[in-house]
Amino acid sequence: MNAQTTLERSVAHGVFTVERTYPSVTPQRVYDAFATEAGKDAWFSGPNEAWDIVERKFDFRVGGRERLVGKWKTGMVTEFDATYFDVVPGERIVYAYEMRIDGRKISVSLATFEFKAAGAGAKLIMTEQGAFLDGYDDAGSRERGSREIVDKLSAYLEG
Amino acid sequence: MPAAGADLDLMFQALADPTRRAMVERLGRGPTSVSDLAQPFAMSLPAVVQHLAVLEASGLVASEKVGRVRTCRMEPAAFSLAEQWINQRRTDWERRLDRLGEHLRQHPQGEPK
Questions:
Q1: How many CB atoms sit inside 10 A of residue B98's CB?
Q2: Which residues of chain B from 29 to 58 reach within 8 Å of chain A, CB to CB?
Q3: ipTM computed for the complex
Q4: What is the CATH number of the domain that holds A62?
């Protein structure tokens, strides 16, 4: 065991929803971008200059698993592991997933995606309910973390 | 778990203004006096103080008066570590779903062969 085992254990529960409306495409088209590896790779996993994909599995069906391991240019390794629990073609996807950073488990979450018609386009409603674990408490200071989130908020607002 | 949604609303309101974002960016580099903070902006000191009040109300920034000088700094306690990570996760998803939007715009009929 290493020094990480001395971390104070904690868990925080969080829920958030992100909605997007995509004009001129059907809900089925949006769903297909989740249901096929080519579709999902186009937006979920990269290609991204900041990281390389180390491992990829994609088995889209109820009970199927998805796995994505990436190594960032900084050396950080992130792991995404999901199991699909509910698949309603063109309408809904529910999967549970865990995230690890450098082997430390940082969260276990339930992600729900609802695909709806919105005028001539499609509306996507994504909800994540998560248990966010102690494992994220790395060497980073609270202040640095605050700055990062502020940077992200600023970038988002300017985006 | 505090009401993250409400906190986020205040923070987004505070950061919706370019002057306040510039102030946050400046404070991100370290604490500073109000007059130094005001210096780059073409506005009166009271106007700067008003912006500062919005940032303080959002919990992003704290200030403290020592003698005649009021010093402002980022308030890391505004975000618990867990909130930072939850907000970051949300931001990650927002970016992904924006990338998805761009992908759908380019390939409205289906994945490219």
A1: 15
A2: none
A3: 0.78
A4: 3.30.530.20
